[in-house]
Design a protein that fits this description.
It is a single chain. The protein is α+β, with helices and mostly antiparallel strands and 492 residues long. The protein folds into 3 domains: 88 residues; 117 residues, Jelly Rolls; 179 residues, no CATH class. 62% of the residues lie in helices and 14% in strands. Strands 1, 2, 3, 4, 5, 6 and 7 form a 7-stranded antiparallel beta sheet that branches. Keywords: Coiled coil, Membrane, Transmembrane, Transmembrane helix.
Length: 492
């Protein structure tokens, strides 16, 4: 029966689709009338089917021995007292053979782990048996019987510490005498079903017939509408492009006018720049001439530079490094001297305490003789370290004095050189020779510890090389002196 109703629903959906498409045909009105008749037949079939649903059995059909149990069966009164029950079997007897669809029991005090046992009989034969668990959230039980029975047994579980009871029992089903009416209703539903199916088939055939015809019409209509929309969009696009091009043309005209104005301004600026460029070129030529003259003077001045340099940063830097090196090396002997002195002091104090405590048992001469090598070795180390420290400090003082002497020589050389050229009628060669002679005398004074006192610079002509210091004039007895001379000459 449900499949027939689904078929009717499908026919109604097809009719709704047909109406939504708004097909215009001479037989469409008749088809709508047939669809309305089918809908009415469907409603009538649903009504008849609802009449066949099982309902609560009337209380007169039950003939239980217990009046209290009979009072809670299919009784809707709210003031019915529940039946206290614990491990008890309750029998519900019917006056005649009856179709029982389902049983619903509302209990009190049952938990999720409790269950009721159901048995259904036809006379003395068991036709149905099952145990049903309690509902998860309520003390209710529900079971589908769907059998013809004469009596039903319900057995409750045993509860030790909890009081349980049955509040109501609902039994649904149908009497046997009502089956005649059910058969009549079923025949009416079957007849109506056949009429509905016949009308649905006819309507479906007509729908399929018209659907193919109208599909082509709607396809053509959609294509035309699509073409119209494309043309409209093309029209709007062309209109927009035309407006855009007109605006662009106006902007270009304005830009041309502005560019013409700027061009005239740029031409005037270009003429002005040409005039300025001519002036700058004349200035540049004059500056080039001045630069060539100054370069010539500069080369002349550079050729005459033969004085002592006044910048002593390199010599001062090297001297400072040597000074720091000597002072750093002298720290180690100082630490050795300090360590040995402290050790000797505390050892002498311990020895004095030991001799004082053991004055009668200690030979002082033996102790002094035994400690004499250690004392001599300590004094030797102290003497060596002191000599090293004295040597390093003397070298640091010597470097400082050399830096001061070189500064003095530089200052004197500069002043004397400036004064020697002032208000004197000397040729360039004579000035050059005098300056070199002065320079060598000052170097001799500065390096007097390394050069013989009877050494004199011999002036030479400009075409001959100047004679430098002869090898025999320098004392080669010490390698340290040679190294210091080389360093001084490089720094100068």
């Amino acid at each position: 029966m449900s499949e027939d109703l689904e078929l009717i629903d499908e026919s109604e959906e097809e009719s709704a689709e047909l109406n939504s498409e708004k097909l215009i045909h001479p037989e469409t009105v008749n088809l709508d009338k047939e669809i309305e008749a089918i809908s009415e037949s469907k409603e009538l079939s649903k009504k008849l089917l609802n009449e066949l649903e099982p309902d609560l059995l009337p209380s007169v059909l039950f003939s239980t021995t217990s009046q209290r149990l009979r009072g809670i069966i299919n009784d809707t009164e709210a003031d019915v007292l529940p039946i206290q029950t614990n491990n008890t079997t309750h029998t519900i007897r019917l006056n005649s053979l009856t179709y029982v669809d389902a049983i619903y029991i509302e209990g009190v005090g049952y938990s999720l782990y409790d269950s009721l046992s159901f048995r259904c009989y036809v006379d003395k034969e068991v036709v149905f048996s099952k145990e049903v668990k309690c509902h998860k959230s309520r003390s209710d039980f529900a079971i589908n019987i769907e059998r013809l029975v004469t009596h039903i047994e319900i057995k409750t579980p045993s509860k030790m510490f909890t009081s349980t009871s049955l509040k109501s029992i609902c039994v649904t089903g149908t009497e046997l005498k009502a089956f005649g009416e059910i058969e009549k209703t079923f025949r009416e539903v079957t007849s109506t079903k056949l009429d509905i199916l016949k009308k649905c088939n006819e309507a479906t055939d007509k729908f399929e017939k018209y659907k193919d015809e109208y599909s082509e019409i709607f396809n053509t209509k959609e294509k035309l509408q699509s073409e119209i929309e494309k043309q409209e969009k093309l029209k709007e696009s062309c209109s927009g492009d035309l407006l855009y091009l007109n605006e662009k043309l106006d902007k270009r005209k304005k830009a041309v006018n502005i560019a013409a104005t700027e061009l005239s301004d740029r031409q005037r600026d270009l003429e002005s720049l040409d005039r300025d460029l001519t002036k700058e070129r004349e200035k540049f030529n004059q500056l080039a001439k001045d630069i060539s003259i100054k370069e010539s003077e500069l080369r002349t001045l550079k050729s005459n530079i033969n004085l002592f340099p006044s910048e002593l940063s390199d010599y001062a830097k090297e001297g400072g490094k040597s000074l720091n090196r000597y002072m750093l090396i002298s720290v180690l002997p100082m630490l050795v001297i300090a360590f040995i002195s402290i050790h000797l002091y505390f050892s002498a104090a311990d020895l004095a305490d030991y001799v004082k405590d053991n004055s009668g048992n200690v030979d002082l001469a033996e102790v002094i003789i035994s400690r004499l090598p250690y004392v001599l070795l300590s004094f030797t180390i102290l003497g060596a370290c002191s000599s090293l420290i004295y040597r390093f400090i003397s070298e640091a003082i010597r470097i400082t004095e050399q830096k001061l002497n070189l500064s003095k020589v530089s200052i004197i050389a500069k002043d004397v050189s400036d004064a020697s050229c002032s208000s004197l009628d000397f040729s360039d060669d004579e000035i050059y020779e005098k300056r070199v002679s002065l320079k060598m005398e000052l170097l001799k004074e500065h390096l007097k510890t390394y050069i013989r006192e009877d050494y004199h610079y011999k002036e030479k002509s400009k075409n001959k090389p100047i004679e430098s210091v002869e090898p025999n004039d320098i004392d080669h007895n010490s390698d340290d002196i040679d190294d210091e001379v080389d360093n001084d000459e490089r720094n100068e």
